[in-house]
Amino acid sequence: MKINRFFTVPAVVLATQFSFAQATADSQNPIIQNFVNEVSNRSQLEDMAYELLDGVGPRLVGTPEMLAANEWTASKLRSWGIEAHLQQFGTWKGWQRGITHADMTYPRVKSLSATQLAWSPETRKPIEAEVVILPQVSSKAEFDLWLSSAKGKIVLMSQYQKIGRSDEQIKEFATPELYEKLKKEKEQATRDFQNYVKNIGYDNATLPEALEKAGAAGVAISNWTGIMGANRIFGAKTVKIPMIDIDVEDYGMLYRMARKAAKPRIKIETQSKVLPDAKTFNTIGVIRGKEKPDEYVILSAHLDSWDGAQGATDNGTGVLTMLETMRILKKYYPDNKRTIIVGLWGSEEQGLNGSRGFVADNPEIIKGVQAVFNQDNGTGRVVNISGQGFAKAYDYIGKWLNAVPKNIKDQIKTDFPGMPGGGGSDHASFVAAGVPGFSLSSLNWGYFGYTWHTTKDTYDKIVFDEVKNNVILTATLAYMASEDPEFTNRERRVMPADEKGEVAKWPEAKQPRRDSKNYK
Fold first, then answer.
1. How much is the average pLDDT of 382-399?
2. Residue range 437-457, pLDDT digits in tens
3. Is 296 helix (H, G, I), strand (E, B) or coil?
4. How far is Cα 157 from Cα 174, in angstroms, rounded to an integer?
């Protein structure tokens, strides 16, 4: 009931405020106490979130907005007296999103909820055409015969979703028997569609190309997450015709109309711009070490995002955490022993390109890295830290964690020595190079189902009290890593055998993709 929600929110806020106060009492180190007090009472997180997410907006590689984000982060660091610069690691195809308008014009008029996919070409002038669905055929030969009939049509390419409700909602309200029935029907429908695509000899990348070659006027998909209102937005697979994503509700309506031979028509207008190739940068901030300047503690987060929304939890919250951490380290830790670097990476979403570029281009820094702390997966408080396969990781991570305020430390589960990250986020670029890089893994808060790469990854999904928690944690870990009299041990664990009896291998260090040539 609504009344319960109104009473619950203040209780959560009070509990969080109490936990910050408790954190101060738990810590005996005056520098760490200053971290807690600053974050609790003078946080700049919300102002920075407004400037980055509402002001700059989404940060797709190759766009003017990505460059604006690089420049904004560098300017913010300089405003705190921190040395900052942009380090180029490559180029990418230039593009800028414009408006997306999609309307059904027949058999009735209705505005549609749709988003142009990244790098999709503009329409120049609105395109109006009949909507058709994929044919009921069972072989590539049959499908290729049909292709010519797609000429001049807008083709619905995704699986039809009979029920647009989340699994959680169905489970809550359906009888157990009905839930199992609907679950099996959905699973079977997914298998049937996967088999269909396999039988016609195409995939998600090659099918749009084939439709474009056949003369289709446009391609529409619905990359629904399974949660009402949330669709994932990635890149277009067409070059000359528009490719759009339509919300599950409107997509389903068009699909049913086309299947019933109602011959629906839609009009699409997109005003994106294809721009010259753009330079791609990492934003690098540096606080020089006073005692061991050639040893480094690196704070890591990727600055780029997909652009269906604002990129708030992927990875605005990681960026905000690392910026705020640098601010309070500069203010309350003036005699840092080791050099502290913040790396805000570009083009993570296309394969960790920014962080891989940094590793490849800065061998002297990599040689002297004490530790890397990376935060990526959403707005939640950090609840897991793995040793990433470094045999002695417990010796130093455990020691550093002991200085973290108890209410924060007690939330965290650890796994030592753990297994090396293979590529899910930027810490993996360092781990592959044999550098102790650690993921500060966050509580889910609906990340993968609701905000990850979706149209709902917006400012309002940030839980700032959780991000404050992560700033205190990260600042404490960075401080402790900088102060540690010993350089971290890089010995790797003995890798275990998998279920087939084959010994697992340490991830291979990979070169970054320096440009967008042949990128799909």
1. 98
2. 999 999 999 999 999 999 999
3. strand
4. 30
Distance CA 147, CA 352 (A): 37
Q: Residue 16: is its pLDDT beyond 60?
A: no
* Tokens 């709902």, residue located: 456
- Angle formed at CA 297 by CA 295 and CA 303, multiple of 5 degrees: 135
Strand 338-345 relative to strand 413-415, pairing: unpaired
The pTM score is 0.93
Q: Which residues pair with 384 in a beta bridge?
A: 413, 441
Are residues 236 and 119 in contact, defined by beta-carbon separation less than 8 angstroms? Answer: yes
Structure tokens at 81: 């007296």
Using CA atoms, how far apart are residues 46 and 467, in angstroms rounded to an integer? 10
Listing DSSP states for 414-476 in one string gives EESS-----SSSTHHHHHHTT--EEE-EEP-TTIIIIITTBTT--GGG--HHHHHHHHHHHHH
* Phi, then psi, of 447 in degrees rounded to 5: -60, -60
Measured distance CA(149)–CA(359) in Å, rounded: 50
DSSP 297-317: EEEEEE----SSS--IIIIIH
Q: How many CB atoms lie within 10 A of CB 111?
A: 10
pLDDT of 27 reads 53
d(Cα 48, Cα 36) in Å, to the nearest integer?
A: 19
Q: What is the structure's pLDDT at 14?
A: 32
For the segment 406-441, what is each residue's pLDDT rounded down to a tens digit?
Answer: 999 999 999 999 999 989 999 999 999 999 999 999
Residue 51 DSSP code: I
Left (φ > 0), alpha (ψ -120 to 50) or beta: where does 355 sit? alpha
Separation of alpha carbons 155 and 243, rounded Å: 10
* Mean of the per-residue pLDDT values of the chain: 94
